[in-house]
User: Which sequence fits this backbone?
C-alpha cells in the first residue's frame, strides 16, 4: 500500500498529515498501530502525532489527531493550524471550518507572524472551566489557582477544558528559560514539569482521561513563556491548546487583560493568543501562529515490517524562513 504523507509543524510541534478526505484508509486499530509506529522518534519518521483529514457533515473537513502512544486527542491547536492550511490550499476558500472530536473551529489565513512564515489563526471556542467538562474528580465546580497536593505541595493549578484537558500553574521562573529573578519567587524546573506530568496521567482517580500539564511564566504585560507536558506525548516543543489555556489563565488571574493579544513564547518559537470572555462567562481563544510544511513523500508498505519512504518535496524556503524566525524570537 502506498500512502502519501505530509510532514508539518506548528511551533516545532511536528505532525504527519494523512489525507483521508476522499476515502477512509484505516480502521481504528490500524490508526493506533500506525501512530505508534510512525511517531516513534527512534523509527523511520518520528512525530508528535498523526493528523487524519477526513470529510465532515458539519464542516469543510474533520481533523482526527492521534498521539505517539496511539491515544486520540480531543483537539490539537498546533495541528489544527497545519491541517487548516492544508484544507485552505485544497479548497481555495478564505476560511475553513474544521470539525474536531469535541467541536468546530474556524481557521483563517493570518498576516505572516514573520517574513515568509505561513501563518494561520484558529478559533478555540469549546472552552470550559467546569471540572465535569475537563474532567477532574474533585468536589468543586471549578479549580482556579488552587492546590492539588497529590501533584505538588507548593504549586497552584487552574484547570481548563480546551476541550482537551489542561492544568496550568503560573510560576515566576522556568529554569530552562535562562532568566534570573530576585526576591521570593516560585521557581519550577522542567524535571518537575515532567514528574508532575507523568504523575497526573497515572492518577486516574483524579484525571480519568489524563491531562496536559503547563508551566506558565509571566514575562511582561504582553508576553508569557509556556512549557507543556502533553498527555500521550511527553515534553513537547510546544502545545497549541496548552499555550491557549495558559494565556486564558493569565487573564483569569489578572496578569493580562481579556481581549488583548498575548505573545506566547515556547521552545519552538512564538504564537499569539487573544483570550476573550463574554457576559455569559463563555470563553474562547484565538490562536495565531505558523503552519509550516517540511516535506511531502510516499510511505510504501505491505506491513510495518516491510516499508520504504520516498521523499517527494522538501519545503526548503519554509524551513529556512522558520529558522530565521526562531533566531528572531531568541533575540527578543
Assistant:
Amino acid at each position: 500500500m502506498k500512502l502519501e504523507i505530509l510532514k508539518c509543524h506548528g511551533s516545532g510541534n511536528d505532525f504527519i498529515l494523512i489525507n483521508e478526505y476522499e476515502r477512509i484508509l484505516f480502521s481504528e486499530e490500524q490508526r493506533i498501530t500506525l501512530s505508534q509506529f510512525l511517531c516513534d522518534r527512534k523509527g523511520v519518521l518520528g512525530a508528535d502525532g498523526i493528523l487524519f483529514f477526513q470529510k465532515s457533515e458539519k464542516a469543510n473537513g474533520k481533523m482526527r489527531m492521534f498521539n505517539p502512544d496511539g491515544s486520540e486527542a480531543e483537539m490539537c491547536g498546533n495541528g489544527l493550524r497545519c491541517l487548516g492550511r492544508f484544507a485552505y490550499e485544497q479548497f481555495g476558500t478564505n476560511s475553513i471550518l474544521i470539525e474536531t472530536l469535541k467541536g468546530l473551529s474556524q481557521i483563517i489565513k493570518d498576516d505572516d507572524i514573520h517574513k515568509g512564515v505561513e501563518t494561520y489563526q484558529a478559533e478555540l471556542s469549546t472552552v470550559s472551566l467546569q471540572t465535569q467538562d475537563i474532567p477532574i474528580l474533585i468536589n468543586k465546580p471549578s479549580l482556579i489557582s488552587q492546590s492539588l497536593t497529590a501533584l505538588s505541595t507548593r504549586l497552584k493549578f487552574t484547570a481548563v477544558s480546551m476541550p482537551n484537558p489542561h492544568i496550568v500553574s503560573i510560576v515566576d521562573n522556568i529554569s530552562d528559560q535562562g532568566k534570573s529573578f530576585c526576591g521570593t519567587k516560585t521557581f519550577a524546573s522542567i524535571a518537575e514539569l515532567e514528574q508532575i506530568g507523568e504523575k497526573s496521567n497515572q492518577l486516574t482517580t483524579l484525571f480519568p482521561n489524563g491531562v496536559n500539564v503547563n508551566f506558565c511564566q509571566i514575562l511582561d504585560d504582553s508576553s508569557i513563556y509556556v512549557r507543556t507536558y502533553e498527555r500521550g506525548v511527553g515534553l513537547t516543543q510546544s502545545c497549541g491548546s496548552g499555550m491557549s489555556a495558559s494565556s486564558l489563565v493569565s487573564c483569569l488571574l489578572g496578569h493580562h487583560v481579556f481581549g488583548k493579544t498575548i505573545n506566547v513564547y515556547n521552545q519552538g518559537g512564538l504564537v499569539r493568543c487573544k483570550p476573550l470572555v463574554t457576559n455569559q462567562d463563555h470563553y474562547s481563544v484565538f490562536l495565531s501562529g505558523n503552519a509550516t510544511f517540511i516535506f511531502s513523500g510516499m510511505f510504501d508498505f505491505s506491513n510495518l515490517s516491510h516499508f520504504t519512504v520516498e521523499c517527494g518535496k522538501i519545503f526548503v524556503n519554509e524551513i529556512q524562513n522558520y529558522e530565521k524566525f526562531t533566531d528572531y524570537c531568541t533575540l527578543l
In short: Residues 146-279 form a domain with the Diaminopimelate Epimerase; Chain A, domain 1 fold (CATH 3.10.310.10). The chain has two domains: 2-125+291-331, 146-279. The radius of gyration is 19 Å.
